[in-house]
Design goal:
It is a single chain. By secondary structure, the protein is mainly beta. The chain is 0% helix and 50% strand. The protein contains no helices and 11 strands. The strands form 2 sheets. Strands 2, 4, 5, 6, 9, 10 and 11 form a 7-stranded mixed beta sheet that branches. The protein has a 4-stranded antiparallel beta sheet with strand order 1-3-8-7, with no helix packed on it.
């Protein structure tokens, strides 16, 4: 399973660091993605990382503000979120890519999902 943590309530302009910890499943050899979903909206791609090459992919809306990285042990992925904006408010989910490690932005290409962590950015 995947377990997210690190969400919370912050003022606009501040930062948060989300963690995604894997247990019982392997992340090595796959890509791991972060998606977010606000109430009444669809699931939106945020970022993805290839755990082998550390290549990354970001949504245009977060480029330059968010950084995805992997932990040294290979079973944790982080999302550093800087310069947060109210429109970043959502539940953030981490997920493992199906079958391979390409950095897809399509949520249907991912299988294991965490329970999500709420991020709320106040004005």
């Amino acid at each position: 399973q995947l377990v997210e943590s690190g969400g919370g309530l912050v003022q606009a302009g501040n930062f948060l660091r989300l963690s995604c910890a894997a247990s019982g499943i392997l992340l090595g050899g796959y890509a791991v993605g972060w998606f977010r979903q606000d109430s009444g909206k669809g699931r939106e791609f945020v970022a993805a990382i290839n755990l082998s090459s550390s290549n990354t992919n970001y949504a245009d809306s977060v480029k330059g503000r968010f950084t995805i990285s992997r932990g040294d042990a290979g079973n944790t992925v982080y999302l550093q979120m800087d310069s947060l904006k109210p429109r970043d408010t959502a539940i953030y989910y981490c997920t493992r890519r199906k079958y391979n490690s390409d950095l897809s932005a399509n949520y249907s290409n991912y299988d294991y999902w965490g329970q999500g962590t709420q991020v709320t950015v106040a004005t």
